[in-house]
Design a protein that fits this description.
With about 110 residues, the protein is mainly beta. The chain is built from one helix and seven strands, in the order ββββαβββ. Strands 1, 2, 3, 4, 5, 6 and 7 form a seven-stranded mixed β-sheet that branches.
Length: about 110
């Protein structure tokens, strides 16, 4: 088996009474162009709308960056635009978790201004 659930969760109350739930899991990420992989601990966030990876991690692990046609501008919780650069790159990977494999695209965040 490529990965297992890490037995570590945390919860805290928010002002509006909702529960914030975070859970980390170990997954395998395979670089499709090299057919090599790396095991990582990933944060699962039930309110997230997509998958993201830091530019620093992508470069360190030698993932092949693919430029996206239309940059994605990030908004903060108060709906203002984030001061960081927009998302301009993504990587294609196979994600492995408990015997399941799925090919997906992960947006790359961060980088130099």
């Amino acid at each position: 088996m490529l990965s297992r659930v890490v037995k570590k969760t945390s919860m805290c109350n928010l002002d509006n009474g909702d529960m914030l739930r975070e859970m980390t899991v170990k997954i395998g990420l395979e670089r499709i162009d090299m057919q090599e992989g790396v095991m990582v601990e990933a944060l699962l966030d039930s309110r997230a709308t997509g998958l993201v990876m830091s530019l620093e991690f992508a470069r360190k692990q030698e993932f092949k960056l693919k430029r996206i046609k239309n940059p994605i501008y990030i908004r903060n919780m108060d709906r203002t635009f984030n001061k960081e650069r927009p998302i301009e790159n993504m990587v294609q990977v196979n994600i492995y978790y408990q015997g399941h494999r799925e090919r997906t695209e992960i947006d790359i965040i961060g980088g130099q201004k």
